[in-house]
C-alpha cells in the first residue's frame, strides 16, 4: 500500500517541530509494510484548509497517487471543527483513499465507529483552538488594562508629515507604504 504522510505544526517559534512526528510516522508505515509515496510537511495553522501541503496532498489523493494518508493525530490533520474535518475525510474516502491516525489507533477509515469518533475528536480540536484564542485575547486585555499600548508603534510627526506629502504628490497608499517600509493600511490610518 502506498502511504502519504501528513505532518503539521502551527508555528515555527514555539518549540514545535514536525521532526517530532515524521520519524515515527515513517517507522509506523514501514512496520505495517507500506511504502511511502510522499511526506507532506508544513508549519501552518490547522484552523483553515488553505495550507499549501494540505492542498497538494488532496490534489494527489484525487489523482490516486497513494492509498492512505497517515497523520500523527486528528488535530495535526485539521482544527477546523467537526463538519469540515469529516468532509475532508469523506472526500478522501470518495476517492478510494483511506486515512489513519498514529496516536489514535481507533481512528482509521476501516473502523466501525469512525464517524462518531472523528466528530468528537474534531470538535475537541476546534474547542482547543477557541480556548487558545480566548487566552490570547484575555492576555491582550490584561496588558491594555496595565497601560500597555497594543498594535504597531505610533509614527513620529515627521513620518506622518512625509506620508501626507507623498499622498499629496499623487502616490497611492501602497506606494507610500513601500517607500516608507510600512503597510498600506498603516498609511491609510494616518491619512484619515
Summarize the structure.
The protein is of the alpha/beta class and 192 residues long. The protein folds into two domains: 2-131, Rossmann fold, CATH 3.40.50; 157-190, no CATH class.
> Low-confidence parts, pLDDT < 50 over ≥5 residues?
none
- Strand pairing plus helix content: what structural class? alpha/beta
Portion of residues in beta strands equals: 5-15%
Rg of Cα set: 23 Å
CATH C-level name of the largest domain:
Alpha Beta
Distance between the termini: 61 Å
Tally of separate helices: 8
Largest sheet: 4 strands, parallel
Oligomer: single chain
Protein name: Resolvase/invertase-type recombinase catalytic domain-containing protein
Domain Resolvase/invertase-type recombinase catalytic: 2-147
Pfam family, one: Resolvase
InterPro entries: Resolv_N, Resolvase-like_N_sf, SSR_resolvase
Describe the protein:
The protein is of the alpha/beta class. It folds into two domains: 2-131, Rossmann fold; 157-190, no CATH class. 51% of the residues lie in helices and 13% in strands. The protein contains eight helices and four strands. The chain has helices at 22-31, 52-62, 74-77, 82-94, 114-145, 157-168, 173-180, 184-190; strands spanning 2-9, 35-43, 68-71, 98-101. A four-stranded parallel β-sheet has the order 2-1-3-4, with helices on both faces. α1 links the parallel β1 (2-9) and β2. α4 (82-94) runs antiparallel to α5, α6 packs across α7 and α7 (173-180) packs across α8 (184-190).
